[in-house]
Each structure stands twice: as C-alpha cells, then as structure tokens.
Amino acid sequence: MALPTSEEDFNSILRRIEALVASSYSPDALALCDGLIAQEVTRRAGLRARADVYASMRLKDLQIVDLERLIALGDWEPADRFHLGIAQWRDGRTEAAALSFRRAVEIGEAAGFGYYTDASRMHLAGVLIQLGKKGEALAHCRLVADGYECHLPGGVRTKEQLM
Predict the structure, then answer these.
(1) 0.70 exceeded by the pTM?
(2) Among 17, 87, 95, 121, fewest CB within 10 Å belongs to which?
(3) CA distances for 122 relative to 7, 87, 111, 159, angstroms
(4) CA end-to-end span of the chain
(5) Cβ 88 vs Cβ 126: under 8 Å
(6) 53-61 long-range CB contacts below 8 Å, 24 or more apart?
(7) Is the dihedral of CA 125, 131, 132, 133 positive or negative?
(8) Which alpha helices (DSSP H) does the chain contain, by range?
(9) What per-residue confidence (pLDDT) applies to 37?
C-alpha cells in the first residue's frame, strides 16, 4: 500500500477499515492496517486500527499485543493506555489493567486532558474494587466530578454507584 498523500486520503483509509469491519470483511481491513503499520508515519494509526479490528474479531490477545506495541512507540497518549487497560480488564488481567489505567491518569493529568483522566479513574476504581482495594478505589472516585458516569464492564455506572 502506498503512503497516504493527504490527510483526506489517510482519513479515507481509516473510514474504509471501519466500513470493512462493519461488513465483516476483517481480512481486507487487516490488510489495510498492515499497510499503515508498514509506514513509519502511519504506524501508530495502523496499530490502533488493527487493535480495533482484532477486538471486533474477539481476538483479545492480538488486540493487547498491538496496543502494547503502540505504547512501546511512545507512551504519551492517555487514550492508548486507556484502551489497553480496557482490553486487559476484559481479558482478566486486572493487575495489568490497573497499571494501564494509572498511567492513563498520569498522562491525562500532565496534559490537562480530563476526558481520559476521569474515565480512567472510574475504570481504575472498578478494577481496584475487583482486586479488593476498596479504599484506594474510593480515593480515585473522590477525584471525579459528582454525577460523572462511564461505561464499565457490566454497564454504565456513576461515580456514586462505584462509591
């Protein structure tokens, strides 16, 4: 696959991947992702997209591997850590998920990016409850705005419900 020549071309490839996944043409979607991964400038986007394709195929291990590869390229995006934490939690890797959510909070706070900070705190609190660390979970919940709600495994939960 040739390197995208414009932002529009790049976005067109990403939309095509999404459309292929929605139509259950995962091998074609994976091929487009591989083309993006082959190019240094689009590698991060390709890994994100391929992780999403693997998630849609319920291939958790491959999804996690790609998200870990993405983070190895540079751990500065809270969304990457957040999505890795979700994948790890769904795969039963609660300790690893807790570490990923903690890192997402750190990165989000440093960047002043509240969306992933708050969502990561809520997910972290959920994982900590599962790990039996209720005091630590409560401390993280207190840092989230009252009434904040988030999609957690099992459904939408508010801060107050977690507390």
Answers:
(1) yes
(2) 95
(3) 34, 15, 18, 7
(4) 50
(5) no
(6) 53/17, 53/21, 53/26, 53/29, 55/87, 56/21, 56/26, 57/26, 60/87, 60/90, 60/91, 61/91
(7) negative
(8) 7-22, 26-38, 43-56, 60-72, 78-90, 94-111, 114-130, 134-142, 159-162
(9) 96
Residue with tokens 């590698």: 43
pLDDT tens for each residue of 56-93:
999 999 999 999 999 999 988 999 999 999 999 999 99
Query: Scanning the structure block, which residue is given the tokens 């990561």?
Result: 120
Q: Which residues are within 8 A (CB) of 90 and not within 5 positions of it... i.e. 6 or more apart?
A: 60, 153
> DSSP secondary structure string, 37-79?
HHSGGGHHHHHHHHHHHHHHTT-HHHHHHHHHHHHHT----HH
**Above 70 in pLDDT, residue 4?**
yes
**Distance separating alpha carbons of residues 26 and 11, to the nearest angstrom:** 18
Digit-coded pLDDT (tens) for 100-140: 999 999 999 998 887 889 999 999 999 999 999 999 999 99
For residue 19, what pLDDT band results from cuts at 50, 70 and 90? very high
